[in-house]
Amino acid sequence: MVSIMGDEFLERTSGGRTLFLYEKMRFATLRSSWLVMACALILYVAFPTRTYYWDGVLFSLNIESVARGDASAAMLIHPNHLLFSGFGYLLYRGAAACGLAMRAIAVLQVFDMLASAAAAGLVYAIAKRVTQSAGAALACGVLFAFGATWWKFSTDADAYIPTVLLLLLTIWFAIQQPPRLVAAGACHTAAMLFHQLAIFTYAAIVTAILLDRRRSPGKRVSICAAYVCGTSLCVGAAYWICYLQADHAAYPTLRRFIASYASDSGFTRSFAELFTMYLASYGKLFAGGKLSLIREFFSPLTVTAFVVCAAALGFSVRQWRAVAKPEQADRRALAILWAWLIPCAIFLALWDPGSAFHKLFAWPAIALLIGAYAASRRERPWIGLAIGLAAWNFGAYIYPHAHASADPVLTLARRMDGEMPKNATVYYAAFSPDDWYLDYFAPGRKWVRLAGAPAKEPFCAETTALVALAPTEQPAARWELVNSQHNIRVECFSGAR
To answer: pTM here?
Structure first.
């Protein structure tokens, strides 16, 4: 069983009474970790998001297409998150084998909720180990579990949550004395196969090995080389095998396959982005919400959340006057956390600086470092701040997004599902993320890439196909959503042009 309090504790003490105290402290930490996990999971399950991240919709669409036999298993391979869709496919088929009539997106949501709750408990355990302070660990666990972006994605269907859980396990094994590198390497390899950005945790593992003073400097360097080579070879082999099954027209070389990224992402274009979009994206990790959504979904629950928020902040202000009781944090563990955060933060400043969801790979390190700071100052104010932030995020962000009507594309898809003929064929010239929603949440229709004029009637066409076809007849039915964020038009016709 992995030690919760650390090996150093036993080294400094001896005797039956000390061992009893050690076991008692370890049990208390385990109990608190499970409590954090349970609270997080209850809230996640009670208020799952209904405004889905587009990646999760595509994962689910591909998983169900493969399960029906409409597509080959190669569709589940994506270079940015190599094996996640394949793993999701196994979960989906496993749920079906157990008699659970769940759509793929629901299966992935449940999995992410469980993974996120486990990650929250692990953050508490790591924080307790680093700070030796239950109060600081509690503040850290609450902040991590209920930060706005993490909470939202924890109830969605995405690859970020399980990847971060694997990275937390990697760090947990790395901070042990001595580091448990086989277990760390297995978790790190799995994380990199779930999402490419897990590669930036290498710096933290190398730091953990180099700061292990139980070995000679030369031995540490050799171990670092062995770790990097071993995990890299495993990941490289998996990429090569998957590339053999991939679409070589889209990815003509293995290098292009590995280095590909979404068309809506890119590198920093100006210094202004670093001081606006980049910094603002970190703020979104902590707090979220829009006034328009608060007004639309205002209820007794949101009032209660805001009252709790105000009370927690008031408690925090009062406690800030209390006498500080600083705790000595584990300096080696702090160095590992900084080595986890800094390379990731530098890369994300250069690439896609405005995305908050990519910052989730740095979120555990941020939360843990805040917990270490809280332990070195005052703990109770930070507990109040964490609870107040969680309450705000629930009332202003999570609760509104738990309603399907908060997502206009989902609302449109459900309306189309009730009005469009089930046997309709929908033509498209480019299959956009909005089309993924419409295809997935208005299921049963056949979506076909446009190649000339449709030969048979009736037929439907979405935005990009309508531009190509320029139909002259009036549509028999029309659905549209046109605003600053979406340009969706779907029209159905009784006959060909």
So the answer is: 0.91
